[in-house]
Amino acid sequence: MEDGSVNLPPGFFFSPTDEELVLHFLYCKASLIPCHPNIIPDLHPSQLAPWELNGKALLSGNQYYFFTKVNENRARENGYWKDTGVTEPILSTFDKKVGMKKYLGFHIGEAPQGTETSWVMQEYYICSSGFDTASYRSARRRRKHVSDFI
């Protein structure tokens, strides 16, 4: 891990479902419970362009995984993340809402005239039981999320 990358054991492929990301990684991170193995690093993507994540985020296949604090300002030095308007609930095996997933696309340049790229980020949020839209909007500013670039 000299360069900050995570070395997974031979034959190990990190491919969690949305439910596993929320229940086994994000809940642990948000509640400060040690996560074993702790393989998803903390990053500040405001300092990185998506193509600079190699060696810093957990790479599995063509997806990067990292934790970061929620930041409403998604502008970066060379571009910005734009909300695509798509938000999906994440359901547990028992059909209980445990989280939400929001999609964002990266645009090069300044908003709103930026050029769309093929970089897509998925932000994951924890839901409280008895989920409703109002509690989601107010809670998302306080919670951490894990981002998954595809």
From TrEMBL:
The question of whether Coiled coil is a record keyword is answered with no
Q: What is this protein called?
A: NAC domain-containing protein 104 isoform C
The Gene Ontology biological process annotation of the record reads:
regulation of DNA-templated transcription; system development
UniProt keywords (A-Z) are:
DNA-binding, Nucleus, Transcription, Transcription regulation
Q: Which residues cross the membrane?
A: none
Q: Is the keyword Nucleotide-binding assigned to this protein?
A: no
Locate the NAC domain: which residues?
A: 8-144
Q: PANTHER family from the xrefs?
A: NAC DOMAIN-CONTAINING PROTEIN, NAC TRANSCRIPTION FACTOR 56
Which organism is this entry from? Glycine soja (Wild soybean)
Q: Which Pfam families match?
A: NAM (PF02365)
Query: Highest taxon of the source?
Result: Eukaryota
- GO terms for molecular function, please? DNA binding
Q: Which InterPro entries does the protein's record reference?
A: NAC-dom (IPR003441), NAC_dom_sf (IPR036093)
